[in-house]
Protein backbone atom coordinates (compact mmCIF):
# COMPACT_ATOMS: atom_id res chain seq x y z
CA UNK A 1 0.00 0.00 0.00
CA UNK A 2 1.40 3.34 -1.05
CA UNK A 3 0.83 6.19 1.44
CA UNK A 4 1.25 9.69 0.14
CA UNK A 5 2.58 12.52 2.22
CA UNK A 6 -0.88 14.06 2.60
CA UNK A 7 -2.38 10.74 3.77
CA UNK A 8 0.45 10.29 6.26
CA UNK A 9 -0.27 13.71 7.81
CA UNK A 10 -4.01 12.88 8.00
CA UNK A 11 -3.26 9.62 9.80
CA UNK A 12 -0.92 11.35 12.26
CA UNK A 13 -3.43 14.15 12.91
CA UNK A 14 -6.19 11.61 13.57
CA UNK A 15 -3.97 9.73 16.01
CA UNK A 16 -3.07 12.90 17.90
CA UNK A 17 -6.73 13.97 18.03
CA UNK A 18 -7.71 10.58 19.47
CA UNK A 19 -4.95 10.72 22.07
CA UNK A 20 -5.94 14.26 23.08
CA UNK A 21 -9.61 13.27 23.39
CA UNK A 22 -8.65 10.33 25.61
CA UNK A 23 -6.50 12.58 27.81
CA UNK A 24 -9.35 15.09 28.27
CA UNK A 25 -11.54 12.58 30.04
CA UNK A 26 -13.36 10.75 27.27
CA UNK A 27 -11.55 7.51 28.10
CA UNK A 28 -13.34 4.78 30.08
CA UNK A 29 -13.12 5.13 33.85
CA UNK A 30 -11.47 1.72 34.28
CA UNK A 31 -8.45 2.82 32.25
CA UNK A 32 -7.70 5.73 34.56
CA UNK A 33 -5.34 5.13 37.45
CA UNK A 34 -6.95 4.93 40.86
CA UNK A 35 -5.58 7.08 43.63
CA UNK A 36 -3.52 5.16 46.14
CA UNK A 37 -2.54 6.03 49.68
CA UNK A 38 0.89 7.64 50.00
CA UNK A 39 3.32 4.93 51.16
CA UNK A 40 5.24 7.21 53.55
CA UNK A 41 2.12 8.50 55.30
CA UNK A 42 2.37 6.56 58.59
CA UNK A 43 6.12 6.08 58.85
CA UNK A 44 8.90 7.30 61.09
CA UNK A 45 11.54 9.49 59.44
CA UNK A 46 15.13 9.23 60.67
CA UNK A 47 18.05 11.37 59.48
CA UNK A 48 21.42 9.67 59.17
CA UNK A 49 24.73 9.83 57.31
CA UNK A 50 25.84 7.41 54.59
CA UNK A 51 28.96 5.48 55.66
CA UNK A 52 30.06 4.10 52.29
CA UNK A 53 32.71 6.75 51.63
CA UNK A 54 34.25 9.79 53.31
CA UNK A 55 31.86 12.27 51.68
CA UNK A 56 29.17 11.82 54.36
CA UNK A 57 25.97 12.33 52.37
CA UNK A 58 22.75 12.90 54.30
CA UNK A 59 20.04 10.23 54.28
CA UNK A 60 16.37 10.09 55.16
CA UNK A 61 15.40 6.60 56.31
CA UNK A 62 11.73 5.65 56.59
CA UNK A 63 10.68 2.81 58.85
CA UNK A 64 7.49 1.24 60.10
CA UNK A 65 7.13 1.24 63.86
CA UNK A 66 6.34 3.77 66.53
CA UNK A 67 9.78 3.86 68.16
CA UNK A 68 8.78 1.98 71.30
CA UNK A 69 11.47 -0.06 73.06
CA UNK A 70 9.85 -3.40 72.34
CA UNK A 71 8.96 -2.60 68.71
CA UNK A 72 11.52 -3.43 66.04
CA UNK A 73 11.64 -0.84 63.27
CA UNK A 74 11.73 -2.12 59.71
CA UNK A 75 13.41 0.23 57.22
CA UNK A 76 11.74 0.06 53.83
CA UNK A 77 12.74 3.29 52.03
CA UNK A 78 15.91 5.42 51.91
CA UNK A 79 16.38 8.67 50.01
CA UNK A 80 18.77 11.61 49.98
CA UNK A 81 18.22 14.44 52.46
CA UNK A 82 17.36 17.61 50.50
CA UNK A 83 18.33 19.80 53.49
CA UNK A 84 21.81 18.28 53.88
CA UNK A 85 24.56 20.67 52.69
CA UNK A 86 26.81 17.96 51.21
CA UNK A 87 24.54 16.09 48.79
CA UNK A 88 21.39 18.27 48.68
CA UNK A 89 19.14 15.23 48.20
CA UNK A 90 21.23 13.33 45.64
CA UNK A 91 22.70 9.88 46.31
CA UNK A 92 25.29 7.81 44.46
CA UNK A 93 24.31 4.26 43.40
CA UNK A 94 25.83 2.81 46.58
CA UNK A 95 23.78 5.09 48.79
CA UNK A 96 20.63 4.46 46.78
CA UNK A 97 21.09 0.69 47.29
CA UNK A 98 21.38 0.86 51.08
CA UNK A 99 17.97 -0.75 51.59
CA UNK A 100 19.18 -3.89 49.83
CA UNK A 101 22.33 -3.88 51.97
CA UNK A 102 20.34 -3.56 55.20
CA UNK A 103 18.09 -6.51 54.34
CA UNK A 104 20.87 -8.70 52.89
CA UNK A 105 21.16 -12.24 54.23
CA UNK A 106 24.97 -12.11 54.00
CA UNK A 107 25.24 -9.06 56.28
CA UNK A 108 27.20 -9.59 59.49
CA UNK A 109 25.09 -9.23 62.64
CA UNK A 110 27.88 -9.70 65.21
CA UNK A 111 31.60 -9.08 65.42
CA UNK A 112 34.06 -11.96 65.06
CA UNK A 113 37.48 -12.52 66.65
CA UNK A 114 39.82 -14.78 64.69
CA UNK A 115 41.95 -17.15 66.81
CA UNK A 116 44.87 -18.04 64.51
CA UNK A 117 42.44 -19.78 62.19
CA UNK A 118 40.42 -19.03 59.09
CA UNK A 119 36.80 -17.89 59.25
CA UNK A 120 35.62 -21.40 60.11
CA UNK A 121 37.45 -21.18 63.45
CA UNK A 122 36.44 -17.62 64.34
CA UNK A 123 34.45 -17.02 67.45
CA UNK A 124 31.48 -14.65 67.68
CA UNK A 125 31.56 -12.30 70.66
CA UNK A 126 29.45 -9.44 71.92
CA UNK A 127 30.02 -5.80 71.12
CA UNK A 128 31.33 -4.80 74.57
CA UNK A 129 34.02 -7.49 74.64
CA UNK A 130 35.24 -6.80 71.10
CA UNK A 131 35.65 -3.10 71.89
CA UNK A 132 37.43 -3.81 75.18
CA UNK A 133 39.98 -6.26 73.73
CA UNK A 134 40.99 -5.55 70.13
CA UNK A 135 43.01 -8.78 69.76
UniProtKB/TrEMBL annotation:
GO terms for molecular function: 4 iron, 4 sulfur cluster binding; electron transfer activity; formate dehydrogenase (NAD+) activity; molybdenum ion binding. It is found in: Cell envelope. Its EC number is 1.17.1.9. It comes from the Bacteria. It is an enzyme of class 1 (oxidoreductase). Its cofactor is Mo-bis(molybdopterin guanine dinucleotide); [4Fe-4S] cluster. The keyword Ligase does not apply. The keyword Oxidoreductase applies. Residues 43-106 form the 4Fe-4S Mo/W bis-MGD-type domain. GO terms for cellular component: cell envelope. Its main location: other. InterPro entries: Mopterin_OxRdtase_4Fe-4S_dom, MopterinOxRdtase_cofactor_BS, TAT_signal. Keywords: 4Fe-4S, Iron, Iron-sulfur, Metal-binding, Molybdenum, Oxidoreductase. SMART domains: Molybdop_Fe4S4. Residues 113-135 are annotated as: Disordered. One of its GO terms (biological process) is anaerobic respiration. Belongs to the prokaryotic molybdopterin-containing oxidoreductase family. This is Formate dehydrogenase-O alpha subunit. It comes from Klebsiella pneumoniae subsp. pneumoniae.
Amino acid sequence: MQVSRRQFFKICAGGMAGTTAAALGFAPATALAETRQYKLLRTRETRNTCTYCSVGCGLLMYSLGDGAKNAKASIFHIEGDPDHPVNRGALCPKGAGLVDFIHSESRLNSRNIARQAPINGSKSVGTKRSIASPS
